[in-house]
Design brief:
- The structure is a homodimer.
- Chain A is of the alpha/beta class.
- Chain A has two domains: 78 residues, Winged helix-like DNA-binding domain superfamily/Winged helix DNA-binding domain (Arc Repressor Mutant, subunit A), CATH 1.10.10; 109 residues, NAD(P)-binding Rossmann-like Domain (Rossmann fold, 3-Layer(aba) Sandwich), CATH 3.40.50.720.
- Chain A is 41% helix and 16% strand.
- In chain A, the strands form two sheets. A six-stranded parallel β-sheet of chain A has the order 5-4-3-6-7-8, with helices on one face.
- In chain A, strand 6, helix 7 and strand 7 form a beta-alpha-beta unit.
- The longest helix of chain A is centred in the first third of the chain and has 19 residues.
- Chains A and B meet through helix 1, helix 5, strand 7, strand 8 and helix 8 of A and helix 1, helix 5, strand 7, strand 8 and helix 8 of B.
- The structure holds a DNA duplex.
Chain lengths: 209, 209
DNA sequence: ATAATTCTGTTGAATAATTCACAACGTATG
DNA sequence: CATACGTTGTGAATTATTCAACAGAATTAT
């Protein structure tokens, strides 16, 4: 009933990207509406949890009909601010960084990589339409209003994080294998194969006890 | 007090990799012991939560002294089965796959990539000491006892997942942007920049309401 | 139209996770 | 060896999350 997005539980917030991804896929398949029960089968989350999660964003479904997929996607964009215009910077233009610049196909999804930075002078060339600047020039080249950085460089990690925070970065997607600390108010998401594998191994072993 | 790892809460299981990573870093810095309060500052998790989490693995700390870092790391390895010998396969030898084969430095951490598979005949060459086989040969080439697969290929994703499950894969680290469904008993971990960015954007916006 | 059906939104109960508070124990000190 | 101190491990209390059950709104069928 509330019209803003205050007080959305953390657990719910973490499920939104899952819904959004599934919805985009369903739309691509030509579907126009979906029931919470059907969506449940796709994302393996109980339908009642889905309905509750969505209810935080407004009264979106219709009884006896379900949800309009387009409407849901729109609401995610409007209310949660994924308005395609997020400016993202990339730190590190190595193998992984290149892969990310390459599938810069999150155009129309969250935003796009505005520019990249690297310490290696050999890597300072435009790649897949993304300019690569020297790491030294971070403070002057960083786009106005940029909040999100993707960190793939693995030297001087902690120092780099501190510089990013000083530049006003509010969220860091961290691909490094280091453990790093962030100042208050900065959010970090690990995107780490090793940790992911560990979690899988832990959970797989648990299941066999 | 329990000597096995039964009934470890899911939330706890997800924090273990965080602890492990921080502990390895502290060890590298030459530290030998740590208090739950100190560790708390590093990982931003309340010390009381840390103590409870660790207590599921046995009685590891000493009152008035803290925890031995070496001992903790050993316990994670022993009790949770990260015994360095996990055989991992990689599906897709493109940019991202190459990056993963390159920092195959999870030797001594979880295991190693035994081999990779790709549909593209041009990519079927040994890369960073990892052999790359044709996708067709998955069923015959997959190592015995292999439980974990890393999925970076982005064509025929769902079909590939089904084949992996049929081969006995129990955990999939998923780098694709697709939404995929897994059969009962198979665990999946998304390692997705886009979803990570979305979560960051969602949470960053939340904080400013 | 009207009635039957379907599926949402939400209440309240059950379960899970976190945090508090402190007794018990190991260490350090004299 | 005894005493003081500091930190763990853990019941009990609190908070967060999930889940079941159902009233009621919108659709569909007649």
């Amino acid at each position: 009933m509330s019209n803003n997005t205050r007080n959305v539980p953390k657990a719910t917030l973490q499920r939104y990207p899952v819904y959004l991804k599934a919805l985009r896929q369903l739309k691509k398949q030509g579907l126009e509406r979906i029931l919470s029960d059907e969506l449940s089968k796709h994302v393996q989350i109980k339908s009642t949890t889905i309905r509750r999660d969505l209810s935080f964003l407004g009264t979106l479904g219709k009884q006896g009909y379900g949800y309009s997929i387009d409407k849901l996607i729109d609401v995610f964009n409007e209310k949660l601010g994924t308005e395609f215009d997020e400016k993202i910077i990339l730190i590190g233009a190595g193998n992984l960084g290149s892969a990310l610049m390459h599938y810069n196909r999150w155009n129309y999804v969250v935003g796009e990589i505005s520019c990249a930075f690297d310490v290696d002078p050999n890597k300072l060339q435009m790649k897949y339409d993304v300019p690569v600047y020297p790491m030294d020039e971070l403070e002057e080249r960083i786009p106005k209003g940029c909040r999100i950085a993707i960190l793939t460089a693995s030297s001087n990690v902690q120092k780099t994080v501190d510089r990013l925070a000083a530049c006003g970065i509010k969220g860091i997607v961290d691909f490094t294998h280091e453990h790093i600390q962030v100042p208050e108010g900065v959010n970090i998401k690990q995107v780490d194969v090793v940790s992911a594998i560990q979690e899988l191994v832990f959970e797989t072993n648990e299941m066999n006890v």
